[in-house]
Amino acid sequence: MARLTIPAIELMKSGHSACPGCGATLVMRYLLKGLGPNTIVTVPACCWTVIGTPFPTTALDVPMLDCAFEATGASISGLRAAADMLGLKDVTIVGFAGDGGTADIGLQALSGMLERRTDGIYVMYDNEAYMNTGVQRSGATPEGAWTTTTPVDADSRGKAEPKKDIMAIVAAHRPAYAATVNVAFPEDFVKKVEKMRAIRGPRFLHALAPCPPGWRYSSEKTIEVGRLATDTNVFPLYEIEGGTYRITRKLGRPKPVVEYLRAQGRFGHLNEAEIDAIQAKVDASWKRLVALESLA
Ligand SMILES: Cc1ncc(C[n+]2csc(CCOP(=O)(O)OP(=O)(O)O)c2C)c(N)n1
Ligand code: SF4
Ligand SMILES: [Mg+2]
CA 20 to 30 Å from 4, out of 32, 100, 103, 200? Predict the structure, then answer.
């Protein structure tokens, strides 16, 4: 029998207030399994402020602070400085923010934290919209997706613009470590977290977090939809260490993108030509990633 590589420790408990099937809860759960108890988490406005600490309770066995929506990067730097002043060298400081709070409103603070070489971890859990306020489009919403602000009607076919490439933006800051992870691949996820925990300097995790109400699929399908995102190359798994790219899951023959799109109501309106155009863009992005890896 294959040995289970995921640590048994549970630092995220039941009793949280997420929707059934929420991918963002699994991001926190696997993250804390990899980091262990000596961790402080800072969270801006997002679903997780509601999920994690409905007053006066908490679902976490580590300290969790609320920071302003745009301030996660600055909050990581401030907590690191305070921990150093107190001689708490072994504590890991983690910022845990949504895609809206990272790729849009928190981008400046993230850039500052990376540029200052803060010794901390920034996690962007990506459910690809502003979910907590009712599924508004973010910079990380993929092209073609329905949201409440990118409707499907006579004038609109969902989001017209492409998804913002947060990993390319982070990579341009030359972080000590950056990686993509997906809750549907927990072993790969935890292995990367354990590795990044031992590295010093600014580190970043881009975590895919499927969201049943926002992506419009039924709640038992979170892992199935998550697997399809990676196995169609829509959301490839890779890491960047010291500027070197390494793809951590490669399929001989990826699945067609249509399988991922058809599994979700937010893409239900797309016609064959629109799906072919998305497939061509996914193929081109994958080619670019393979070329980056070959530079190693
Ligand atoms: C400065 C500021 N603007 C707007 C809000 C309202 N707000 C709270 S959560 C949220 C959505 C966050 O989206 P994202 O970061 O993607 O996290 P998610 O809700 O999807 O988990 C917004 C717009 C706020 N709290 N503060
Ligand atoms: S809206 Fe989505 S991200 Fe937010 S709690 Fe529900 S499933 Fe999780
Ligand atoms: Mg979001």
Answer: 200
Per-residue pLDDT at 4 exceeds 70 = no
Nearest ligand to the CA of 68 is: 1
Query: Residue 216: CB within 6 Å of ligand 2?
Result: no
CA 101 – ligand 1 centroid, Å: 6
Alpha-carbon dihedral 291, 124, 29, 21, rounded to 10 degrees: -90
Query: Alpha-carbon Rg of the chain, whole angstroms?
Result: 18
Percent of the chain whose pLDDT exceeds 90: 94
* Spacing, Cα 34 to ligand 2 middle (Å): 22
Instruction: Note the pLDDT tens digit of each residue in 273-282.
Output: 999 999 999 9
Note whether 94 and 35 are within 8 A (CB): yes
Q: Which residues line ligand 1 (CB under 6 A)?
A: 45-47, 69, 98-101, 127, 130-133, 138
Per-residue CA distances from 185 to 27, 224, 265, 266, 290 (Å): 11, 11, 23, 23, 20
Residue 48 CA: which ligand 1 atom is closest? Answer: 21
Please tell me the distance from the alpha carbon of residue 256 to that of residue 152, in angstroms, as a whole number: 24
Judged on CB neighbours under 10 Å (0-12, 13-18, 19+), 241 is: middle
Pocket lining: 214 vs ligand 2, CB cutoff 6 Å: yes
Euclidean distance between CA atoms 266 and 144, whole angstroms? 8
- Per-residue pLDDT at 259: 98
